[in-house]
Specification:
Shape: elongated
Order of helices and strands: HHHH
Helix content: over 70%
Number of helices: 4
Radius of gyration: 38 Å
Length: about 130
């Protein structure tokens, strides 16, 4: 009986250890660092293949990634972030002005016509007074 109990205890312990290992492996796969490393490894493999197809391409790819990294670091500074926000605000203003442009042009044309009418009336009144 003691032997059976010991065997069962060992089996249970082995199952627990196997389960623990599976959980740890799953957790490791879920960690962002591991996923990121896996993605980067696959991307490098793809890029290596392309680099072998064209000489000098790998260096260019590295430079592009380095520039992207530098840009993202620069965006972390307050001045760059402020400039980025302002650029977005200006683009929004430009698009609003473009939507309103026909209305603005119509209003300006109406104002101009009103000015011409006012001047024409003044000339007519002056002509009338001269004739009398």
């Amino acid at each position: 009986m003691q032997e059976n109990a010991m065997e069962r205890l060992e089996e249970t312990e082995a199952q627990r250890n196997a389960g623990q290992l599976r959980r740890e492996k799953t957790c490791a796969m879920e960690r962002s660092e591991d996923s990121e490393a896996w993605r980067n490894e696959n991307q490098m493999t793809t890029q290596d293949t392309r680099a072998m197809e064209r000489p000098g391409k790998r260096e260019a790819w590295r430079n592009v990634n380095w520039l992207r990294t530098q840009k993202s670091h620069a965006m972390e500074t307050p001045q760059e972030t402020e400039a980025w926000i302002n650029a977005g605000w200006l683009r929004k203003q430009d698009s609003r002005e473009n939507m309103l442009l026909p209305q603005i042009q119509q209003r300006q044309a109406n104002n101009q016509r009103t000015d011409f009418e006012r001047i024409a009336m003044e000339v007519d009144v002056a002509d009338f007074h001269e004739k009398e």
